[in-house]
Write a structure and sequence with these properties.
By secondary structure, this protein is of the alpha+beta class. Strand 2 and strand 3 form a beta hairpin. It comes from Eiseniibacteriota bacterium. Keywords: Signal.
């Protein structure tokens, strides 16, 4: 009997500690389980109870099995500001004046003083030839935040020379933009592109060949110092607007108290058809003023586009009033991604209120070959034909210039 008691005592001595550890184990696991996991377990238990006997027949998860924690949500970060971008372009030509004023004129230094390019202001000199850099842009865009951004642009132009006769540099754009000041409306302050031919030039696509008619004839500046509201009246972006108040002096500082008011309404009510009525007005000294009216229309085709622009300006001054009028028709086509063609015709009447005047017709035609992205090689011809009205006398020679134009764009990043 004594031996049996010793055996029972030994077994109890061995089992009692293990029983106590087995009772502590679920508590320990529940204490170490994260709060989210405990909630998941509670949710699973409640669902299991509500599903009844069918669910109870499935194998139960053994007690003490760790439950995986729920995934940690990824928080979105704000965009990286400020951030900037550098971009620009250059175009220039190899040129030869096949027709023009045959009289060769020279400066005192012996250099040719005849006019090189057709610009609507004078005759070009025949046989003049060379290489020219007509324009280069260097632009920096900086996004300060989602709402505010800036632009600074320098232009290099062969017409703007330094005192030493070298190609000059000037500020073409420098402005601050505040986005969504009103719904779908942005505010601009500084040296801003005017809305006069902004949309028609973008549709024409060949500023590297020639300016649009209003810019070519110099009846409105391409940029002005002022303020502007620009945007869309509807969420579908079918009715746009640009309302601007500027000095009216282009890139030059203000020199009078009068301002120029610009308004354009670009419309895209029908797919692929763009229409833009435009008007601007500037007051002057002694009841002098000027008003410009313009209508642009363009239609995009599958592999090309056709466009037309009409400009009419009324100028009141101390003398007789004048009214320049112009019509421009142009088209472009691209049968292949790397090859395109373009053509344009302009009729210009310097003053429709004068019976005796010299009108002119401008012709442009050429090809556009793109050997690499943003690199263009464009052979083209530009010509002007003069027409006398009344007793006026037209120039004896028309102007013809043959060019091989090179154009490239760059940007980073």
């Amino acid at each position: 009997m004594r031996g049996r008691k010793l055996v029972v005592a030994g077994v109890l001595t061995f089992l009692i500690p293990w029983g106590a550890r087995a009772e502590e184990l679920p508590q320990t696991v529940s204490q170490k389980t994260p709060q989210g996991a405990a909630q998941v377990v509670a949710l699973a238990d409640s669902q299991a109870v509500s599903q009844g006997a069918a669910q109870s027949a499935s194998p139960a998860v053994p007690e003490g099995t760790p439950v995986p924690a729920p995934p940690i949500p990824v928080l979105q970060t704000e965009p990286d500001f400020p951030r900037g971008r550098i971009s620009g372009y250059m175009f220039g030509d190899l040129y030869y004046n096949a027709s023009g004023d045959p009289t060769h004129r020279y400066a005192s230094s012996g250099a040719d003083s005849g006019q090189v390019n057709i610009d609507g202001k004078g005759l070009i000199g025949k046989d003049l030839n060379g290489v020219q850099l007509r324009r280069a842009y260097f632009q920096v865009d900086n996004d300060l935040s989602i709402k505010y951004s800036t632009r600074f642009r320098l232009e290099v132009d062969s017409k703007e020379l330094t005192s030493g006769g070298k190609i000059g540099v000037f500020v073409k754009a420098a402005y601050l933009q505040a986005k969504n000041v009103i719904p779908r409306g942005n505010f601009f302050f500084g040296e801003i592109a005017t809305p006069t031919f902004e949309n028609s030039e973008e549709f024409w696509q060949y500023r590297s060949i020639e300016k649009t008619i209003a810019d070519f004839r110099g009846i409105s500046p391409s940029a002005d110092l002022g303020v502007e509201m620009k945007g869309f009246a509807d969420a579908a972006h079918k009715v746009g607007y640009s309302a601007m108040i500027g000095d009216g002096n282009g890139q030059k500082p203000e020199n009078n108290r009068y301002k120029r008011f610009y308004l354009s309404l670009p419309l895209n009510l029908i797919r692929d058809l763009k229409i833009e009525p435009y008007v601007d007005y500037e007051d002057g000294v002694a009841n002098a003023d000027r008003a410009l009216y313009k209508l642009f229309a363009g239609y995009e085709l599958k592999r090309g586009a056709i466009g037309a622009e009409v400009v009419d300006q009324v100028i009141h001054s101390a003398g007789p009033s004048t009214e320049p009028f112009g019509l421009s028709i142009f088209g472009r086509m691209a049968p292949k991604p790397t090859l395109a063609a373009y053509a344009r015709y302009d009729r210009w009447q310097p003053n429709t209120r004068a019976a005796n005047r010299v009108d002119s017709d401008l012709y442009i035609a050429g090809l556009d070959w793109q050997p690499y992205k943003d690199v263009h090689v464009m052979p083209n011809v530009e010509a002007t034909q003069y027409r006398a009205r009344g007793t006026a006398v037209a120039p004896a020679h028309h102007d013809v210039q043959a060019r091989l134009t090179f154009y490239y764009r760059f940007s980073k990043p």
